UniProtKB/TrEMBL annotation:
Species the sequence originates in: Nonomuraea turkmeniaca
One Pfam family named in its UniProt record: LacI
CDD domains xrefs: HTH_LacI, PBP1_LacI_sugar_binding-like
PANTHER family named among the record's database cross-references: LACI-RELATED TRANSCRIPTIONAL REPRESSOR (PTHR30146), TRANSCRIPTIONAL REGULATORY PROTEIN (PTHR30146:SF138)
SUPFAM superfamilies the UniProt entry points to: lambda repressor-like DNA-binding domains, Periplasmic binding protein-like I
Annotated PROSITE patterns: HTH_LACI_1, HTH_LACI_2
InterPro entries recorded: HTH_LacI (IPR000843), LacI/GalR-like_sensor (IPR046335), Lambda_DNA-bd_dom_sf (IPR010982), Peripla_BP_I (IPR028082)
MF terms in GO: DNA-binding transcription factor activity; transcription cis-regulatory region binding
Keyword annotations of the record: DNA-binding, Transcription, Transcription regulation
Residues annotated as domain HTH lacI-type: 13-67
The name this protein goes by in its record: LacI family transcriptional regulator
Presence of the UniProt keyword DNA-binding in the record: yes
Length: 341
């Protein structure tokens, strides 16, 4: 069973402590407080006395976790815009539907009181999928302590929670080595600001481990076509690199548009690469060299992992890394040793 912490003065009081003080189970405490089931008068009196002594105020999260009464999963995304998030969510929803679970989605972009919103969602579902850093570390730690079943995508392993991500560093090194094989010497990485431990940071560290001081990080504000266009246009006007390594395909598509506006040939004047292998990458002109990650599989695996935690198939966290693959196309220039797809 799971517990919710309530703040009383400077003390944290959990539903566990109420149950222990009253000498009953958590479920009995929940029934006594909600009036949702038979509880002997003497038992109810002991529960209410414990609640008063501990100054405990039950919340929807605590009661819901104690009862385990939902058939829904919560998904917390930083943003729902763009093909990457769409693919991951499609994979997740497909499996959740097969398992008979509905999906409740929370996008944190532009929201205030995000921690409160996430905790409120946790009280309405059986478990949470959290994407990247949509929830800060202290909140993840609190949710784990409260017993919320958690799966986190695209983030370093966290104590008490399942984590699932695609491999980044080795594929980033392979991409950098491929570009170096073309003879390029000046590089830029579009994708800052970089958040420690997230996917883009791993990609940056991977390419930098090969290219060293020959590559600089350039801010894009967000990972969108528009932000990629703005960052690439400013960069190409000021100090044109020979190759631009983009944090994802959307940023790379923006870079292709910026080069076109400035009358630059890709890859003749500047090479451009992406990451993800969204559908638009293969249909861009020139077709985009990128790293393919299994976006839909990522969502599907996350849904199955969360279901295992909810149903009690396992209760120990697991950390999975899915394989990625370098896909060489025309945007990085001719390279006879590689096969294009």
């Amino acid at each position: 069973m799971k517990a919710l912490t309530q703040r009383s003065g400077s003390m944290d009081v959990t539903i566990y402590e109420v149950a222990k003080r009253a000498g009953v189970s958590i479920a009995t405490v929940s029934r006594a407080l909600r009036g949702t089931g038979p509880v002997a008068a003497k038992t109810r009196e002991k529960v209410l006395k414990a609640v008063e002594e501990l100054n405990f105020t039950p919340s929807r999260l605590g009661v819901s976790l104690a009862e385990g009464r939902h058939a829904a999963n919560g998904v917390v995304f930083p943003d729902l815009a763009g093909p990457y998030y769409t693919e991951v969510l499609l994979g997740y929803e497909e499996v959740a539907s097969e398992l008979g679970r509905s999906v409740v989605i929370l996008s944190t972009k532009g929201r205030t009181r995000v921690n409160d919103l996430i905790k409120d969602l946790a009280g309405r579902v059986d478990g949470l999928l959290v994407f990247g850093h949509a929830a800060p570390d202290p909140l993840i730690a609190e949710l784990v302590r409260l017993g919320v079943r958690l799966v986190v995508i695209s983030r370093d392993p966290l104590p008490g929670a399942d984590t699932l991500r695609s491999e980044n560093t080795a594929s980033a090194r392979a991409l950098a080595e491929h570009l170096a094989g073309h003879g390029y010497e000046r590089f830029a990485f579009l994708g800052a600001p970089l958040t420690s431990g997230d996917d883009v940071d791993e990609r940056w560290r991977g390419v930098r481990s090969v290219l060293g001081g020959a590559i600089e990080a350039v801010a894009t504000r967000e990972y969108t076509v528009e932000c990629g266009f703005d960052a690439a246009r400013a960069l190409l006007k000021d100090r044109r690199p020979e190759a631009i390594v983009c944090s994802d395909d959307e940023v790379a598509l923006g870079a292709l548009l910026a080069a076109e506006e400035l009358g630059l040939d890709v890859p003749g004047d500047v090479a451009v690469t992406g990451w993800d292998d969204i559908m638009a990458a293969r249909h861009a002109r020139p077709a985009l060299t990128t790293v393919r990650q299994p976006m839909r599989e990522l969502g599907a695996r996350a849904a199955r992992a969360l279901d295992e935690l909810i149903t009690g198939v396992r209760d120990t966290p697991r950390h999975l890394i899915l394989t990625t693959e370098l896909v060489v196309r025309a945007s990085c220039g001719p390279h006879p040793q590689e096969v294009r797809t």
